[in-house]
Amino acid sequence: MLRLFFLLIFYSTISHSSTLENGLNVIVQRKEGKLCALQAWVSSGSIYEEEWTGSGISHFVEHLLFKEADGRKIADEIERVGGDVSAYTTYDKTVYKIEVQKPYLDLSLSLLVSALFSPGFREKDIETERDVVLSEIDRRDDDPESFLQRKLFFSAYTTHPCKHPIIGYRELFMNLKREDIVSYHQRRYIPENITIVAVGDFNENEMEEKIRKAFSKIKRSCAKPLALIDEPQQVSERRFCEEKEGLKMCYLNLGFQIPNITSPDLYPLDLLSELLGGGKGGRLNLALEEKGLVHSISAYSWTPAWKGLLAVSAITPQDKLKEAKEAIFSEIERIKKEGVTEEELLLAKKKIQAGLLFLRETPEGLASDLASSFLVTRDANYSERYLEEIEKVSQERIREVAQRYLSISNMTEALLSPPSLVQEETSLPKMYKIERYKLKNGLTLLLKPYPNSKILSIHAVFLAGRRVEQEGKEGISNLLSNLLIKGTSEKSYKEIVSLLESYGGSIASFGGRNSLGISLSILSDGEDAAIKILSEILRKPSLSLDELKREKEKVLMRISAKEDDSFSSSFKLFLETLFTQHPYRILEEGSKEGGPSTTTPITSSKGWTSS
Fold first, then answer.
1. Is residue 378 helix, strand or coil?
2. How far is Cα of residue 514 from the mean position of the Cα atoms in its chain?
3. SS (HEC) of 60-95
4. Per-residue pLDDT for 599 more than 50?
């Protein structure tokens, strides 16, 4: 019944496709509703850039196309009638989307023709968008997940051009000139490389005729044959490992080479990825996320027109990386040996079927499905066949493809971690369970032994920060955290530092929105001295008026420096806008106008509570 339900839906929405005399491909389908979707799918992705490979020129053209053409501001005119425009670039295509109400479909079609074939590529637009793309490149490289995804592809592919980033390498992108953009556009933006898709509440024959007339003035161009180098079969494991300062978590990607979309293994591989990482019920989620081994984990099967990847992506704490990897491989091996249950497979099929059905619910989603199917298979209605093949997949086929493709020799591992983990991963000492004690005075003590370690690290943390500060005393926690280590009733700051350094140690304070405290690290033979000093600081801090004045001057200078910094200033404004009453609206340092005066007592030993 389920299969019949889905097939009835797809058979009742078969689209009509045709090819014009100039080579332009057209797909139209009627769908009731107020909105119409008009899209152009261009075979102009990063793998087709030839002499510009790695520059991101396909993506750059995408940024410029809706700017100005035939003297018309394309995006502005569409948005003026309440329409929406968007675009994106992948390895093998650039997609332009317009969504408008039916009365403005003719206008949108006219604007799309101008944008595709008569873009102005004005120098001022080129330089403006160049800065935008440079910002994208910076964000891509700063984001751990995006960075690692790029490194996974660069490592997994040795010859195919999809090893290079879609938006390009900074140095190659910066070399692009207007003449390069014009030349590339003329080469790739020809009718034979373009598919126009229209979905909406219209007569399909009339809509096809309108598209035919709109594009009839565009003459056929000679399409240069482009032979892409196929990726060779992977025969041994590949690894990419890199450390990055400032990271708190480990980012792990495992990619297994799989065949392209024409392989009959496509269907069981899609189901296998769904069974592994599809939602909270996936094997990997149940085995790792619910046990606290990972922050998140997912899996996907990517089967383009060339060899693809079945990938697992996870974010895990540093001390749980090894256990998380072992658990991932354990689940993979379990599927290879035992297969999956009939109930698991049925649920995975339902999820894939439902996902495709939900996609086709909107005009935009239906247009995207029709066009993507056509570009890869030359059959706009391929989704109907896809669902039929998904329905046929057996439990044994899942086990077969898992055995065939999910092997170490066919795997590429990409790891991004905090410093020191990459080199020490194989020799990390076994971590013991954290021991927790509650002392009689209410203080909580957490102990975690590290076998063979020569260093002792102690942190004393108190509930404090902006969250507990009184009105008019903003920044008092920050001041207190700075003052704590400046001396005790028995020792000066210089004496404290000198004693700790004699054991190779150091001390620092910290404060934030919810806490403040002291961090102390020392060689293990200085354990008694460290505990004694920490006890003195917490029980008998000097909190002298002279130190208070000096620290307050430092804070005021820090506030002034932040006012000079555009990011800090904008973040301050963001907090003030987001939080209207909550203490978080004010930065931890407080403000020049508020906060404690230089003569205000910060605290006394009576202010500390062991909880």
1. coil
2. 28
3. HHHHHHCCCECCECHHHHHHHCCCEEEEEECCCCEE
4. no
pLDDT > 80? residue 243: yes
| Phi and psi, residue 37, nearest 5° | -110, 130
Q: Kindly report the pTM of this predicted structure.
A: 0.67
Q: Residue 433 pLDDT more than 50?
A: yes
How confident is the model over 164-209, as pLDDT tens digits? 999 999 999 999 999 999 999 999 999 999 999 999 999 999 999 9
**How far from 605 is each of 79, 248, 444, 543, CA to CA, in Å?**
64, 34, 18, 10
CB-side exposure of 465: number of CA atoms within 13 Å? 18
CA angle 598, 601, 603 (to 5 degrees): 135
Residue 58, SS3? helix
d(CA 154, CA 543): 56
Q: Which two tokens stand for residue 490?
A: 């028995």
Cα Rg, the chain, nearest whole Å = 31
- CA nearest to 40, candidates 100, 94, 103: 94
User: From CA 171, how far away is CA 154, in angstroms rounded?
Assistant: 17
Query: How many other CB atoms are found less than 10 A from the CB of residue 584?
Result: 16
Cβ–Cβ under 8 Å, residues 412 and 239: yes
Other CB atoms within 10 Å distance of the CB of residue 404: 16
Task: Find the helix or strand (DSSP H, E) in which 463 lies.
Answer: strand 455-463
Provide the CA 463 distance to its chain's centre, in angstroms: 33
* DSSP reduced 3-state for 175: coil
Tens digits of residue pLDDT in 335-360? 999 999 999 999 999 999 999 988 99
Residue burial 103-115, b: 16+ Cβ < 10 Å; e: rest? ebbebbbebbbbb
Q: Which amino acid is at 449?
A: P
Q: Could you tell me if 382 and 373 are in contact, meaning their C-beta atoms sit under 8 angstroms apart?
A: yes
User: What is the number of residues in the chain?
Assistant: 611
